[in-house]
Specification:
- Helix 8 packs parallel to helix 9 and helix 12 runs parallel beside helix 13.
- The chain is built from 13 helices and 14 strands.
- Helix 8 links the parallel strand 10 and strand 11.
- The protein folds into 3 domains: about 120 residues, Methylthiotransferase, N-terminal domain (Rossmann fold), CATH 3.40.50.12160; about 110 residues, Transcription Regulator spoIIAA; about 120 residues, Transcription Regulator spoIIAA, CATH 3.30.750.
- The structure holds 5'-deoxyadenosine (5AD) and iron/sulfur cluster (SF4).
- The site of iron/sulfur cluster has 10 residues, from helix 6.
- 5'-deoxyadenosine binds next to strand 13.
Length: about 375
């Protein structure tokens, strides 16, 4: 019996696919890189931008033929798209050849859902409203020498463009001891040289459960684990980046000197409309502190262009910020309207043509900066 997984989206999803693989392997399935040979195909979907959803819809549609060739093949769709009830129902109703639909909150039930499907052959749409932290799930790591470790789930920030808080729910931190135990086990295998901590907003680790301590304390405790490994983390929200975090990064050789610090825009007007809760001035002061403490730190960012009401002048301010920070990497996105978010209903939506122009401008600027830095 063989399985195949198709993963869309961010590192969180990549890691969740490792858990899916762990569950399937425990059930006795082995991996195949060929969809047509798989007895179970899992689509782990992403909802962050409309384009990602459209692509997934197209690709799920294309599975119809595979099901025709082998009616016993089990097709599973999970992830952020199907954690939205309306999308889960739409997939259920549009694609009768999809056997099992579940979200992110009930991933831990995958084994029992597959068994139920095999036993009674009925299609399944299973949905849970709330996040549950389930410890001890098997995990089959597929990211080479890097081991992903989730430290928290969900997001409380409600940036006005973003669907994540609606899909993934409120922030819940894992218990520190569970995280430390997982990392000790990873280190003891000697198979990995890097641990990457994952969370939508790692800097606010523990704020839902102060007895777990802060993110910088967690980092320090991880660095105290004996063994030869490097540590990094994503994603940091600028509003929560503390001086303690900067000093823990500086003091510990195990921590890689890099940070992904999404700025999203260089215009205070747009940052406010985005509900980012910091100003350009504050952001630049963080960059200065980081570089003062660690002169060679690699800094990368996310930027959204064409957010509602973004004028040429606002975009120029983003360009100025990029020129002054001289990022080591930029992920530039065209704003994409997500239903249910605040920005969806804002006046002043920007034309795709302009978004396209602005995103290309940033990509070229990134190239120029890299060339200047000799990279
Ligand atoms: N449109 C465009 N980009 C978005 N992102 C999140 N939501 C949207 C959206 N609606 C980007 C942000 C975030 C990254 C993971 O995806 O830049 O940091
Ligand atoms: Fe989305 Fe903002 Fe939360 Fe990041 S911090 S997941 S952009 S709402």
């Amino acid at each position: 019996m063989q399985y195949h997984i198709v993963t869309y989206g961010c590192q969180m999803n990549v890691h969740e696919s490792e858990k899916i693989a762990g569950i399937l392997q425990k059930m006795g399935y082995t991996y195949t890189d060929k969809r047509k040979d798989a007895d179970v195909i899992v689509f782990n979907t992403c909802a962050i931008r409309e384009g990602a959803e459209d692509r997934a819809f197209g690709n799920i549609g294309a599975l119809k033929q595979q099901k025709k060739e082998n009616p016993n093949k089990i097709i599973v769709v999970c992830g952020c798209m199907t954690q939205q009830k309306s999308v889960a129902e739409k997939i259920f109703n549009t694609f009768p050849f999809v056997d099992i639909i579940l979200g992110t909150h009930n991933l831990f039930m995958l084994e029992s859902l597959i068994k139920r499907k095999i036993a009674n052959r009925k299609r399944i749409l299973d949905y849970l409203d709330e996040t549950n932290i389930v410890e001890g799930l098997p995990c089959y790591r597929t990211s080479g020498k890097n081991a992903w470790v989730n430290i928290m789930y969900g997001c409380n920030n409600f940036c006005t463009y973003c669907i994540v808080p609606y899909v993934r729910g409120r922030e819940i931190s894992r218990k520190k001891q569970d995280i430390l135990n997982e990392i000790k086990e990873i280190v003891s295998t000697n198979n990995y040289d890097t641990i990457t901590l994952l969370g939508q907003n790692v800097n606010s680790y523990g704020s839902d459960d102060v007895s777990q301590g802060t993110f910088s304390e967690l980092l320090q405790d991880i660095c105290n684990i004996e063994g030869d490994f490097q540590l990094t983390f994503m994603t940091s929200h600028p509003k929560d980046l503390s001086d303690d975090l900067i000093s823990v990064m500086k003091e510990n050789d195990k921590i890689i000197k890099e940070i992904h610090l999404p700025v999203q825009s260089g215009s205070n007007k747009i940052l406010k409309l985005m509900n980012r809760k910091y100003t350009v001035e504050h952001y630049l002061s963080l960059i200065e502190k980081l570089r003062q403490a660690m002169p060679n730190i690699r800094i990368t960012t996310d930027i959204i262009v064409g957010f509602p009401q973004e004028t040429e002048e606002d975009f120029n301010q983003t360009v100025q910020l990029v020129k002054s920070v001289k990022y080591d990497g930029i992920f530039a996105f065209m704003y994409s309207k997500r239903s249910g978010t605040v920005a969806e209903k804002m006046d002043g939506q920007v034309d795709d043509e302009i978004k396209n122009k602005r995103v290309n401008y940033l990509l070229n600027l990134e190239k120029e900066i890299k060339a200047q830095k000799g990279k």
